[in-house]
Write a structure and sequence with these properties.
The structure is a single chain. This protein is mainly α. It has two domains: about 50 residues, Arc Repressor Mutant, subunit A (Orthogonal Bundle); about 120 residues, Tetracycline Repressor, domain 2 (Orthogonal Bundle). The longest helix has 24 residues. Helix 7 packs antiparallel against helix 9. It has ten helices and no strands.
Length: about 190
């Protein structure tokens, strides 16, 4: 798939979107999510509130995130472009281990951002929405790897379970160990726990 370069308008929109994300994150970290209004973020970027919603129609909670395309594409690449011989579940475990609360030794800024997301219900719910939007394409990619039909129930179940992991165990005391425990269960079944 070839990506067409953005035209002038596309570049300007991307810059505005980036400026909004940076302003929102800075203000949310400084004051707390609930203490920051959309107007305050708009003022930081010097645009109107309606223009904010033109760029981010999903609302205030979406201001810190991209539209989910990067998440979906990198998730699918983890399955489709994994090294020869690597099982699909191993590739998905590796992918998830590099996201949000599962990252080991994150930078201070990354840790603060992740904590803000995980402790703010609206932000945490939005990340779940972004993950669940990946379900159908991930299920299809898994089905293809298994040599099954695109709507295969098993592939759909695996996709759903994997995409629920961040919501399910992201706030455990040791999220990485919890991630590994869930993937051990998904890869080896209940008999592996006996």
């Amino acid at each position: 798939m070839t990506v067409e370069p953005l035209g002038r308008r596309g570049r300007k929109n991307a810059q505005t979107r980036q400026a909004l994300a940076e302003a929102a994150q800075r203000l949310f970290l400084e004051k707390g999510y609930d203490q920051v209004s959309v107007k305050e973020i708009a003022d930081e970027v010097d645009i109107s509130v309606p223009t904010v919603f033109k760029h981010v129609p999903d609302g205030k909670q979406a201001l810190m995130f991209d539209d989910g395309v990067e998440r979906r594409e990198s998730l699918l690449a983890a399955v489709r472009e994994r090294p020869a011989g690597q099982p699909v579940m191993s590739a998905l475990r590796q992918f998830m281990a590099g996201r949000g609360p599962f990252v080991t030794n994150p930078s201070r800024e990354f840790r603060r951002r992740t904590e803000l997301i995980m402790t703010t219900p609206e932000l945490r719910n939005h990340t779940r929405t972004l993950w669940i939007r990946c379900e159908a394409p991930l299920a299809e990619a898994i089905a293809t790897e298994l040599g099954r039909e695109p709507d295969d129930l098993t592939a759909r179940a695996v996709a759903r379970y994997v995409l629920e992991i961040p919501q399910f165990v992201g706030d455990e005391l040791d999220p990485r160990s919890a991630l590994d425990a869930v993937f051990d269960l998904l890869e080896h079944g209940l008999h592996s726990l006996a």
